[in-house]
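[Discussion] Sanity-checking designs against the backbone

I'm trying to build intuition for which residues belong where. Below is a structure token string of 322 positions. I'd appreciate it if someone posts a full sequence so I can compare it with mine line by line.
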């Protein structure tokens, strides 16, 4: 009974559902305020994203005539559930995740892909031509950032397990965290600096933030993948977007800044939140305010040349033992 209650706490409260939603609302609100101030606007209140979510929940859901209703309604729910599941694998406090295994990073990679696939499937089920264009763009974006993301994971896995046991790779977040607790954050490992920079570029495209939001370009394809969504299903997709901001910044923290601990849980949580806020500003707010939206081909070219090149440099350096 006690184990069941603990697991429910992990899933529903911390680090699961409730904490993810609160962090997503916080980061989304701060992002909107920062972008507004950099554009010399007043900006909305910090809880505006939450107000928008509640407003969507109260709206009527208009299902397109030719939509596949089961898929149309299931896609946002499955995508959101997959995203919340990722939080349970992140050892954000004291290096102990709610659930752990030997291939956490592989599971997380698949779950992140599932979130994007749910958006693609949901868009396809609506039967809208705008959604069709949006889902094709979403697929290009996935292909673009997945390669550098995988290269970053391979580089981190090689560094961690070479020092620990001499095996070829590790995909365990626990092992990566423990290595950093003993040897310092991987962000300061000189051979992994290019990989860290690559990961910083992966975050905004994975989240779908401007200037990489080619799949939902409002001024071009009328919200693209979400053009036919309304009411609570649209609210769930919007909430998924907010939570994804938190998940990706938390993942960067675990991969490159893990092992930081004061011995006081409250202080560790505060440091973790501050780092997530800082990463949101660097990876999402600054590019949003400074850059125009990329074209689809520009996104692909950028990630398969510059970003993948940075990750590949780190991978080569760590496999050479440097």
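Best answer:
Here's mine. Compare freely.
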């Amino acid at each position: 009974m006690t184990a069941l209650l603990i697991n429910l706490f992990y899933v529903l409260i911390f680090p699961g559902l409730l904490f993810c939603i609160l962090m997503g609302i916080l980061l989304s609100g701060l992002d909107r305020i920062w972008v507004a101030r950099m554009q010399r606007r007043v900006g909305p209140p910090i809880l505006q994203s939450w107000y928008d979510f509640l407003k969507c929940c109260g709206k009527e859901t208009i299902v397109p005539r030719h939509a596949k209703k089961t898929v149309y309604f299931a896609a946002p729910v499955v995508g959101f559930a997959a995203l919340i599941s990722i939080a349970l694998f992140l050892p954000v406090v004291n290096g102990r995740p709610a659930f752990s295994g030997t291939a956490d990073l592989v599971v997380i990679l698949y779950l992140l892909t599932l979130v994007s696939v749910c958006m693609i499937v949901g868009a396809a089920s609506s039967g809208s031509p705008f959604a069709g264009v949006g889902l094709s763009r979403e697929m290009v974006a996935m292909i673009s950032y997945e390669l550098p993301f995988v290269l970053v994971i391979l580089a981190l896995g090689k560094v961690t397990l070479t020092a620990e046991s001499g095996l070829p790779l590790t995909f365990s977040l626990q092992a990566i965290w423990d290595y950093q607790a003993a040897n310092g954050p991987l962000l300061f490992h000189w051979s992994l600096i290019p990989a860290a920079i690559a990961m910083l570029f992966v975050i905004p495209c994975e989240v779908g933030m401007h200037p990489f939001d080619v799949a939902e370009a409002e001024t071009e394809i009328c919200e693209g993948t979400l053009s036919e969504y309304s009411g609570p299903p649209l609210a769930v997709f919007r909430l998924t977007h907010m939570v994804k901001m938190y998940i990706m910044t938390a993942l960067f923290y675990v991969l490159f800044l893990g092992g930081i601990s004061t011995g006081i849980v409250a202080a560790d949580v505060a440091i973790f939140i501050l780092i997530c806020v800082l990463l949101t500003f660097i990876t999402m707010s600054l590019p949003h305010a400074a850059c125009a939206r990329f074209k689809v081909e520009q996104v692909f070219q950028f990630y398969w040349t510059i970003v993948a090149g940075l990750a590949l440099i780190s991978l080569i350096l760590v496999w050479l033992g440097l």
